[in-house]
TrEMBL record:
InterPro entries per UniProt: MFS (IPR011701), MFS_dom (IPR020846), MFS_trans_sf (IPR036259), MFSD1 (IPR052187)
Organism: Alexandrium catenella
UniProt protein name: Lysosomal dipeptide transporter MFSD1
Family assignment from sequence similarity: Belongs to the major facilitator superfamily.
Residue stretches making up the Major facilitator superfamily (MFS) profile domain: 34-451
Source domain of life: Eukaryota
Known partners and oligomeric status: Homodimer. Interacts with lysosomal protein GLMP (via lumenal domain); the interaction starts while both proteins are still in the endoplasmic reticulum and is required for stabilization of MFSD1 in lysosomes but has no direct effect on its targeting to lysosomes or transporter activity.
Segments crossing the lipid bilayer: 30-52, 72-95, 102-121, 199-220, 264-287, 307-323, 330-349, 355-379
A single Gene Ontology CC term: lysosomal membrane
Cell compartments where the protein resides: Lysosome membrane
Length: 494
């Protein structure tokens, strides 16, 4: 059997110093601090969600006051979704060069500027309804330039602060906070204003407040700088730590080589995100008008009812904790996609007096809390065997897939409502997209490596263990290396 000395001698480089610096940094990342940092990151990122849903929350008022059609309202979401095709990649590159604080301030400023342009257009009496639409599209373009890139910023911030299974929990916490503070509150607060002009200026104030929260993040980062320095020295992801400490000895993998090495599972999961996650963000923007037409709700009540979807997404950390512990991510993803499609189909077929929209939207929100977290975690697992550092290019491709959906589905929904003269048929469209997502999720199990996705609990391929040699010297051992010994039938002890 292998002894501890043999295991340690097999390692080409033993990174003792970074671990010691981590232990001697003087700052401990306790559970309470981790939750607080994750929530702060989520509040900052909520600016993108609040601004994105602004036209959806004010859909009825905009159509009544400006004379816009559902198809024209869909153009606002199309304008939002164009810049992310390149901005997510640009922002990712700038984060590596300029840091999170500078890039975050720039993205938040773009969002605030975009909402400001829309508010100025709404306050102008010299512009016609069509003129306001064109100016709003310019503002939405700026919001889109900062919005989706800010989501990438949130993922990068969580990666810098946390790793391993803690990274998944941090992302789930930040996700739930940004959905509740950004998405849910937009449908509750904005329709409550009696004047449309007041509502759009409230959106400007909210986005400006999120920019101020970035200043609080800067102070928190400075207070935890020893911890962050030690995290950076020890390696951001914890896997292949020996190679990361000596980059000049490690051949770099090109971007296109990593793209070509992405397995079929990665592309299938991106198709699922294009289908399922798109429905989460797009459907809510068209629910208020539908609730008013089918159920006769007021503007305020329709906004409150729609917000239930995002209040339920607050359950994402609980769903993440359960799948982290027990696995079955692919099963949960498939069943939830199919169940949401059934709910949308029932909303389309069942008479309104036989199905409560409150129960239906709560159920959709609970199921979506299971889908979104698992979808991102499964996506990260699909590139675990790709050489190099595929995280950046992987999340960049994911952003492109998601925004393709955010461009197409809102426009299709608006065109359908304009052509038929009713919003009743939109739920059938949403149901078809969810059924397609369930089919893709079923297909993933048949692809090479698909069966192991159900065994994913946390991030087992990317975790390190801190152990001690017989003389008490701390060392990091890669779990994948040890698992290779087990797979070969070799025995060892530590």
């Amino acid at each position: 059997p292998f002894s501890a000395e043999t295991c340690l001698a097999s390692c080409s480089r033993t990174p003792v110093a970074p671990v010691r610096r981590m232990w001697q940094s003087g700052v401990e990342m306790t559970w309470g601090r981790a939750v607080a940092v994750s929530c702060l990151i989520g509040v900052i990122a909520s600016s993108a969600y609040f601004a994105y849903h602004e036209p959806g929350a004010l859909e009825t008022s905009m159509e009544a006051e400006y004379g816009w059609t559902p198809a024209q309202l869909g153009l606002l979401f199309t304008a939002y979704s164009i810049p992310p095709f390149w901005m997510t990649v640009i922002a990712g590159a700038l984060m590596s060069k300029c840091g999170l604080k500078m890039v975050g301030a720039t993205l938040l400023a773009l969002i605030a500027s975009g909402t400001l342009i829309g508010a100025l257009a709404s306050s102008s009496s010299a512009l016609s309804g069509t003129g306001k639409l064109y100016v709003w599209m310019v503002g939405r373009f700026l919001v889109g330039a900062g919005g989706e890139a800010l989501v990438t910023w949130q993922q990068a911030a969580c990666t810098i602060w946390f790793h391993g299974e803690h990274l998944g929990k941090a992302m789930a916490t930040a996700l739930s906070v940004q959905q509740v503070v950004g998405s849910a509150l937009s449908f509750v607060v904005l329709p409550a204003f009696p004047e449309l002009t007041h509502a759009v200026w409230a959106a400007v104030a909210f986005c400006t407040g999120c920019l101020a929260c970035l200043g609080l993040y800067v102070l928190v980062e400075r207070a935890h700088q020893p911890y962050l320095d030690a995290r950076a020295a020890a390696g951001s992801h914890g896997d292949d730590i020996y190679e990361k400490l000596d980059d000049e000895d490690t051949p770099r993998t090109g971007t296109w080589a990593m793209v070509r090495a992405m397995p079929a599972l990665f592309w299938a999961q991106n198709v699922l995100i294009f289908l399922d996650v798109t429905v989460l963000y797009s459907s809510a923007n068209f629910f208020p008008d539908w609730l008013q037409e089918v159920y006769g709700m007021s503007v305020h009540d329709a906004g409150m009812c729609t917000s239930l979807i995002y209040w339920m997404v607050a359950l994402a950390p609980l769903a993440g904790a359960l799948t982290d512990r027990y696995g079955y991510r692919l099963v949960v993803q498939t069943v939830a996609s199919l169940a949401i499609g059934v709910v949308f189909l029932m909303l389309y077929l069942v008479p309104p007096n036989l199905l409560s929209p409150v129960i239906a939207l709560v159920l959709i929100g609970v199921l979506f809390s299971c889908i979104e977290y698992n979808a991102y975690c499964l996506l990260e697992v699909t590139w675990s065997s790709v050489p190099g550092d595929p995280e950046g290019i992987g999340f960049g491709i994911m952003g492109i897939a998601l925004n393709l959906g955010l461009v197409s589905l809102p426009e299709l929904t608006g065109v359908l409502a304009t052509a038929t003269g009713t919003t009743r048929h939109q739920n059938l469209l949403f149901a078809l997209w969810m059924f397609a997502g369930a089919g893709v999720s079923l297909l993933e199990r048949c692809l090479p490596g698909g069966q192991r996705l159900n065994n994913v609990a946390g991030v087992p391929e990317r975790v390190e263990h801190v152990v001690k040699s017989p003389v008490g010297t701390p060392c990091i051992l890669n779990v994948q290396w040890l698992e290779g010994l087990v797979a070969n039938g070799e025995k060892f002890e530590l």
